[in-house]
Structure formats: structure tokens, C-alpha cells
Amino acid sequence: MKTLATGILICTATFLFAQMPKEEVDTKAKNILDEVAAKTKTYTSIKTEFTSVMEKQETNVKSKVTETQSGTLQLKGTKYKLEFKGQTIFCDSKTQWTYIKESNEVQINNAPDPKATDNPNPVNIFTLYEKGYKYKYEKEDIVNGVKVDIVNLYPLDAAKKAYHTIRLTIDREKKQIISVKVLNKNGTSNTITVKNFTPNSEMPDTMFSFNKADYKGIDVVDLRDN
């Protein structure tokens, strides 16, 4: 899960604005995020295919080292299934299972708190700015022929975060986030770009639970607090 939180989305991206003094509210950014929020809240489920790119500036070298991965996320309320980088993460809203294919191991944790919106995770990736952030409208642009708006999020509790900025690129017509770029304090960045976005797909609840019987000889590691 930490891989997703720091690599994806620090990722894959509805939003209400953070609680801030009136004079700090960026009205244009707020209006754009509110439109995205209104659109996203109409979906019963979301399926996305995405790419995740990590960039690192090498010391004393002008070029950057990049690492690219692809994955899929299927989201239904607080339930999700994430396939990424040799792992499949299942979450039924109470329990999270991380299946690691290479070692044939599953790690069991408690599900992330769906109300904890101050850090990226699959549940809040499309509602991230609801709490814990200031935001600023940066500019309009054209990406692959699509008109977009770019909005930056800045964590209010910046000293406790490994990143300083989350940059959202939003399709102006569709009111959808098409990329999330996390700029880390150590000079690296992680960008999730949505390649395919399908709302309102049929998703049975059983797909969000891990079935041990489907994985012969699997090693089970329970990391939940007793």
C-alpha cells in the first residue's frame, strides 16, 4: 500500500476544498475542483488503466533516471482492487490483502481509513483535496490535443510530509483528473497518468476480497494489530 501512496500517487484522480481562511482561497481552483467533485460523485464505480512514472535526478548528471510501470484500479465506494508492479491489492473496506506474485505471499492489513484524506490512497485518489491541503490554480494548457487546467495542492502539515506539492491535470471538458504528479522533497517525482477511465462498470463485491484457495502453497503474513 505504501508503494501506491508514495509511488503513484506520490500515484492514478472529486474534490471539496480544504478548510482555510477566506483570504487564502483560490476561487478559480475551487470552482474547478468543485466541478470535478460534482461529476465524480455521480459514479457508482470507477475503473482506470494508468501508467506510473518515477523520475530521479542523478547527482552531478543532467539527465534523469525514470522508471515506468502500468496498472489498473477498480474502485467501488471504499472497496478497491489494484494491480500494479507485480502485486495485486484487494480491499473490501475492512481488510486489505496485498498479494506479491514473485514470492507467492499475501500480506494482510487493516483497510486504510476512508476518512483520512490527507494522504493518497486508492479510496481517496479522486477526492484528495477534501482535507489537509491549500490549492492554487497554475495555468491552462493543452495535453495531447485536450484542453486542461492545472491545479497545485500544498499540504497544510508540510513538515510531516515527504512531498511538497501534488499537481493535478484536469480535462476541462470531461471534468476528470487525467494525471497526478507528486513532487517529493528529495528531488524525485512520481506521476500517475490515467490512460483509460470507465465509470459505472458492474463490479461484484466478491472481486474485492482475497480467496486463499485460489493460490496454491501461498504464504500468509498477517500484519494486523491485535
Description:
Mean pLDDT is 84; it is low at 1-23. The chain has a 12-stranded mixed sheet with strand order 7-8-9-10-11-1-2-3-4-5-6-12, with helices on one face. The relative contact order is 0.23. With 226 residues, the protein is mainly beta. The protein has 2 helices and 12 strands, in the order ααββββββββββββ. It is globular and about 55 Å long.
Summary, kept brief:
By secondary structure, the chain is mainly beta.
Rg from C-alpha positions?
Answer: 18 Å
Q: What is the 3D form?
A: globular
What portion of the residues fall into strands of 2 or more residues?
over 45%
Total count of strands: 12
Fold blueprint:
Blueprint: H1 2-8, H2 27-40, E1 46-57, E2 64-76, E3 79-84, E4 87-91, E5 95-100, E6 105-110, E7 133-143, E8 146-155, E9 163-171, E10 176-184, E11 189-199, E12 219-222
Parallel strand pairs: 6-12
Antiparallel strand pairs: 1-2, 1-11, 2-3, 3-4, 4-5, 5-6, 7-8, 8-9, 9-10, 10-11
Keywords:
single chain, globular, 226 residues, twelve-stranded mixed sheet, mainly beta
